[in-house]
């Protein structure tokens, strides 16, 4: 019989563990908690064998801490190990023992967080480092002197409870700092499952709070949420083969397949829901911690003031009435002792409205009782319930935590059944800050500050809450949303007229911003089409406020002073049409004095003439100034290649084009013969100062005579920036807008935004021998929507087949 040397035995154990580990991770039938437990047990046995083979001295224990201590081993988790000794063994023997354990772990390529300490050293380190103390709360003996390990864990736990008043605020601050760095998991397209708010670190913090005995987290759904986040991290490790916690876009489909889910959206919804449960539990728990700590700090002072033992008398609890059946108690809105939810179906909304109006959280115990006992509202709702909903929405930002409390207990979906389809639904456009459900609530928050601008604040707030409700259904969400809004409005008890208004506002909630940024407002057909869709001044008023609230709730890229001014201009023109005022004929409009002066100069010199005028455009948020907008007027003798040349020069100078109007001006014969092209551009600097006019003119001259190779220069700039990984952009799409104008054929280009996009569009149109009357550029994040008004060289509209062919040609050129 052959006897293995200690080193050979260690290597054999390592190779056996590695093979068993690989086999375990390949078992498709073993998933989730079962796999994590089996992996932890397998690792326990291997480390215990390493410990035993090293012939350890007495008074030494191998202890798992942190996630490994909780037996939560994901496929690529590191091992958190503590070699604990009582100090009786020589230091060299303990160090040699540590090497006999640590090196085999490293040899297998497993990340290791290790330490060697006595119980006193462990306690001292924990007292200085909160993270170490949190890890020791989950200490679990693996081998050796288990009594020594159990004693340390009991001592650390006692220290934690004794020091909770000092250490819990420190833990709360740690959680806040981490949330600021990593963001809120349930709203991130690429969330960190561990570090982001609502992730696994917060679950660990909740366990620590519970271990302090000062407060405890709501238990409903928390274990399921934790398991779901751990399952997602396991699948991420298996799909990537890396120890990563960030759920990157390019990994989400593979992770969804690993979990047996339909697609990446289903994965995100499940992860978001789990994070939402953890976030709500955290909010409730930390609020309770604050209340307990405040009470503990007040009690000694009260005892001193009242003198001796008399201070120990129980003080009466103050209850301040807020609404019928609702009172304030200890900083929360709670149900009054006389409240009877089973007989009062409007109580959930009334309690929520009272809490939001007074800026108070709604007690989780009250919400739980309302969810369990409250009767369903009759359909249609009584006026009291409808008014309470409007009051809740009109409370502004304080409505958000109250709404989330209702959602946590399922009350929202009971009131609005269609809400379930938008709950935790991701929005993959990076312009959006929120998921669909939270975006709807945030829009109502923004709308609350605009209610003084409309005659029907109630309709504005409800429309804000419902405007994207159709995103839970296939097809155009505005069309689907119209039907849902009509049904929900009737359910809420609105009359036929109000129901029709809400349905119209939801159907056309994108009409104003899309039209203002993508269509020619000087074209009578543009204004008349909006007037026909809106119908009344009251509806237009609601749409105007909703447009602003929707954009502000979307994200910083969705609204600007420029967009606001375009929408306001459109609303002014539509209001005139609805009031019966005639629209001016754009064909009859004479050039301005400035345009005529530049045209005369261009005709006299035969060269381009430029004028830059700063626009009075104030940032919407003084703390986040946007690029300064300017009007750039260019006049030059009519010639081929003007649009691509000007667009290319502007791109080279890092100017963002917002709109461009092109018109030919025929000057009186006594001043000379010929046509002059006048271009009126609205541009903004991407960053830095605006370029000087003479530099723009010099580069424009070079572009027109062919000495400035714009495509090559733009290609050089693009090559200088490394391409980022991510989801590939969809191909460009060009469509013909159906019969929208009697002045020109309207093409709509949707493409990935990039420097020089309008230059490439201009080159393609130049090659197709069409004339561009105007261009309107709208960019949201990485997506550009450019609308072009084009005609034949003689000014006539393109026939349908010719327009379709042009759209295909442009699509191919951009592709």
UniProtKB/TrEMBL annotation:
Uridylyltransferase: annotated segments: 1-316
Key words, A-Z:
Hydrolase, Magnesium, Multifunctional enzyme, Nucleotidyltransferase, Repeat, Transferase
Q: Where is the ACT domain?
A: 631-717, 746-815
Q: Which Pfam families match?
A: GlnD_UR_UTase, HD
The UniProt GO MF terms for this protein read: [protein-PII] uridylyltransferase activity
Record-linked InterPro entries: ACT-like_dom_sf, ACT_dom, HD/PDEase_dom, HD_domain, NT_sf, PII_UdlTrfase/GS_AdlTrfase, UTase/UR
* PROSITE patterns, alphabetized: ACT, HD
Q: Which cofactor does it need?
A: Mg(2+)
Q: Does the keyword Nucleus apply?
A: no
Q: Which Gene3D superfamilies does the annotation name?
A: Beta Polymerase, domain 2, cca-adding enzyme, domain 2
Catalytically driven reaction(s): [protein-PII]-L-tyrosine + UTP = [protein-PII]-uridylyl-L-tyrosine + diphosphate; [protein-PII]-uridylyl-L-tyrosine + H2O = [protein-PII]-L-tyrosine + UMP + H(+)
Summarize the activity regulation: Uridylyltransferase (UTase) activity is inhibited by glutamine, while glutamine activates uridylyl-removing (UR) activity.
What sequence ranges are listed for the domain HD? Answer: 436-559
SMART domains, alphabetized: HDc (SM00471)
What Enzyme Commission number(s) appear in the record?
2.7.7.59, 3.1.4.-
Database matches in NCBIfam families: PRK03381.1 (NF002895), UTase_glnD (TIGR01693)
> Domain annotation text?
Has four distinct domains: an N-terminal nucleotidyltransferase (NT) domain responsible for UTase activity, a central HD domain that encodes UR activity, and two C-terminal ACT domains that seem to have a role in glutamine sensing.
HAMAP family per record: PII_uridylyl_transf (MF_00277)
Chain's role: Modifies, by uridylylation and deuridylylation, the PII regulatory proteins (GlnB and homologs), in response to the nitrogen status of the cell that GlnD senses through the glutamine level. Under low glutamine levels, catalyzes the conversion of the PII proteins and UTP to PII-UMP and PPi, while under higher glutamine levels, GlnD hydrolyzes PII-UMP to PII and UMP (deuridylylation). Thus, controls uridylylation state and activity of the PII proteins, and plays an important role in the regulation of nitrogen metabolism.
Instruction: Tell me the protein family, please.
Output: Belongs to the GlnD family.
User: What is this protein's name?
Assistant: Bifunctional uridylyltransferase/uridylyl-removing enzyme
Q: Which organism is it from?
A: Streptomyces omiyaensis
